[in-house]
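User: Predict the structure for this protein chain, please.
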Amino acid sequence: MGKRNQGNTKYSVTRTVYKAVKKYDHQQFESFCTSVYKCGWEDGRRSLNAMDSGEIEAAIRGVKGVGEVRVRDIMAAINEKFKEKAESAEKEEGAGNENNY
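Assistant: Here is the predicted structure, written as structure tokens:
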């Protein structure tokens, strides 16, 4: 595909790769684009510093003065937001499938 620059995750497309891509048929180009997308996806996933609800709950439980009932209420609100965000992402994904490039 291309080669990674030392020190960052950007790919540089060499002249050889550029010439090869220009000659690709539809299937080869689709495969190339998929591999570029997957590499970008993995780079993004690795750079994300996400926490799951268990880690959030543990941090809240560590706060002095926050009891079991309050933790349960806070976690219910947080889990509801996670659920809303997931549903919103699914709706956007479904709407995005109408475009065929």
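The beta strands are 3-4, 11-12.
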